[in-house]
User: Fold Cytochrome bc1 complex cytochrome b subunit from Sanguibacter keddieii.
Amino acid sequence: MTTTNVPKPVAAGTDYLDQRTGISNAVKGFARKVFPDHWSFLLGEVALYSFVVLLISGVFLTMFFVPSMGLIEYHGPLSSMNGQLMSEAFASTLKLSFEVRGGLLMRQIHHWAALLFMAAIVVHMMRVFFTGAFRKPRELNWMVGFVLMILGLLAGFTGYSLPDDVLSGNGLRITDGVVKSIPVIGSYLSYMIFGGEFPGEDIIPRLFTMHILVVPALILALIGLHLLFVVLHKHTQYPGGGRTDKNVVGFPLFPVYVAKAGGFFFIVFGVIALMGATMAINNVWNYGPYDPSPVGAGAQPDWYMLFLEGSLRLMPGQTEYVIAGWTLSLNVLIPAVVIPGLLFTFLAVYPFLEAAVTKDKREHHVLDRPRNVPVRTGLGVGFLTAFIILALAGSNDLIATHFHLSINSITWVFRIAFFLAPVAAFWITKRICLGLQRKDRELVLHGHETGRIVRFANGEYIEVHKPLDEQERWLRVGYEANRPLEIAPREDARGVRRKGYAWDRQLQKLSGFFFEDRVEPVTPAELAAAHSHGEHDQLDSGDAHGQLDPVRDGTGHGVVTDERKS
Ligand code: HEM
Assistant:
């Protein structure tokens, strides 16, 4: 018989709940779920916890913020603004900053949490991309995550605009221009969004509803779905001894993971609070209330919007045409709609593109090492390079003033770099990956160099190599090199043309681009041949892909293995 030390009232309460909901089985099952342990799995958690901080600090701000564009004359502790006309929104932001106890701290916590939220989302997305965690069965969860990222951008943009200061007002002015650049419907759309000619009197209350209700509700719902998928699919795991597509090696959710995650939440909260308390951010009183006429140099949006700003700054202005009385503003349409559209579409469809060029229908739960998928890794680095160049271009004025350079030269360098640098980054990354794979082959076959040179009696010299241990060998051979697709011929045996051949041919070309250059993993036969060669001291024989005991995989005590149901 087992005895437990649960206090009576707790036991009674739990029993009461269980008899009415039957929840105990679900809780038990959930508590036993196994989560693999790796620092990169914390990135999604940072996003989650900063969202919680956003909700808590946001509720506080909502109590005091007045979402109105009605004009009032300011009379308050900020003497420099006394007597100035401003919107109630701006005035309430000043009140929050100077009169409400803890208001400035909350504003700053909220803003830093937003920046961290977006940074965590982007880095988490990079982790998922570079390790191939988006492969079957997680393509849908990638899509959910992608929508979350777009919603994150929307949440940031709508919140940033609320104080109605000069900086955010200019951001809204840019938005108005972008919307108006959409052919045919643009000006109607702008009138609809702003409730008339920009800026109108409706936009702040409308943004407020989006910011505190619609967008957070959607984010909350989608985070729920996202995490439900993580639980249903079980987490992926990094390659290593004993880890296969059929099991999960890690710690049980309760108590290990719950304790770790709980502690980590407070660390994230603490860091954001420290940032909010010590690092000033968005001091709107320095900019002043919104007025369409002033706009200063050194005006940048929050970091996650910089790519859009940079894209607009790089586009030559001469590309505006009037056709039959309609204005076609390619100078705005291309940088603000077409380029971000292409970049985001690439991200959204990438898992499906890769599935099409591999024709791989199997489930994947063991992550890829980025080097083992050189083209994917190259494409990811190329994408990031384009993103970083656009973000830097969004600060071309600051780069010019800080480094005493001509803004025109900087703009031209970025224009050229935007087209060339991602291609160069792709190529260099791909070559590095292939080089690392060759190095892996070399290590598996010949072991690590020891620096010990031995001379035989016959005068021959050899260097003694130290064979890899099982864990390391597993890591370096445990991958598959995809090959370009093979397709059925254009015509069948009777000379009848096959339907769908043209499409298959395109896919084949694309898969050639992905997998033509590849380094195959060491096969057991190659390994055995290297052993029998005998030169390389102590190489023990065995199967290169042999089974290892997952519990001895070096991740420490308390590791458990759970089978995946396929
Ligand atoms: C509000 C934003 C987001 C939150 C709070 C969030 C949270 C999480 C958490 C806690 C996990 C489990 C731990 C981990 O693997 O890191 C996870 C997994 C995952 N996330 Fe996100 N995520 C967000 C956005 C995204 C984005 C933008 C993408 C990609 C477009 C994405 C794709 C995935 C995928 C595919 C998994 C499963 C990974 C695996 O099992 O290895 N997530 N997410």
